[in-house]
Amino acid sequence: MPPPSLPAARDPAAATTTARRRSSKEGGAAAAKVHPAPAEKEGKKMGAATAAGGGESGWRLPEWCSAAGVAGILRRHPLPALFACGLLLFMAVEYTIPMVKPDAPPLDVGFVVTQGMHDAVAARPWLNSLLAALNTVFVAMQAGYILWAILVEQRPRAAVAALMMFTCRGMLGCATQLPLPDEFLGSGMDFPVGNVSFFLFFSGHVAGAVIAAADMRREGRVALARLYDALNLLQVVRLLACRGHYTIDLAVGVGAGVLFDTIAGWYFDAKNADGKNAHCRSCQCHKALLSH
After folding, report:
1. Is residue 100's pLDDT more than 80?
2. 205, 257 in Cβ contact below 8 A?
3. Residue 118 among the catalytic residues
4. Which of 134, 146, 195, 283 has its CA 20 to 30 A from that of 221?
């Protein structure tokens, strides 16, 4: 019998086929050695996880649960840590504080703080009327700025935010009618002018000022926005001293102003999401909406 190499030497095609078969077998063997089967890989992963976690699930405590992790959180995130302490504090306070009796007036810390100013205004009706008139002027300033923004500068965001805010305020005011404080000092110079009835929750005076100031900041009118913030703070003190609002009315008024200004911004961002104006936070892009 001739040696195996002799037929291959006589037949070049057979030699090529034999070389291909040998190369395929060698490549398959190498791949089998380098790349283990999927089941084998999964078994190795589970074994590693079990060894690392010391259990079947491989779960272990997060790193921030250690003393060093907590210290790092306190150093890098002091504000959330402060809020966490506040949560624990007020949980203890809420579960132990005595409730106000059903036949007793509401306990308002803002009223307690402004008691001296309340007594002074109550003893001087002219001062009460003067403060009410000044407050009404400030409300007119808020409305005037918002109308100027939409009618002259064609920026409707502040106006839409105010419409949303006052509609929500009316719904909440009808849903929960709070009693008027016994020490309320009304005035014919106040807004609504004529000392008529009004909703207590939440304060539209405060929310409107917040919306106007936010619009001013977007337009770079920082000094004017700071003036409105200062006047809004004085308005808060006056409303507490005259018992025109509870403290919670004023606090939620600030939040409502921020909330509805943000929602109005989302609304116009969605309306102007046509390419170049998408995700634009400036009110300048809202001019196109009014021109349609």
Report:
1. yes
2. no
3. no
4. 134
249 tagged catalytic: yes
Mean pLDDT of the chain: 81
- For the cut 70, the answer to whether the pLDDT of residue 28 exceeds it is no
Choice among 118, 245, 261, 286 that is catalytic: 245
Q: Return all residues near 171 (Cβ < 8 A) that are at least 6 apart.
A: none
- Residue pointed to by tokens 């892009």: 285
Catalytic residue (choose from 190, 249, 261, 286): 249
CA–CA distance, 85 with 83 (Å, rounded to integer): 5
Examine the residue annotation and report whether 205 is marked as an active-site residue of this protein. Answer: yes
Whole-model pTM: value is 0.71
Catalytic residue among 205, 215, 261, 286: 205
Q: What is the pLDDT of residues 148-202, one digit of tens each?
A: 999 999 999 999 999 999 999 999 999 998 888 989 998 888 877 656 678 899 9
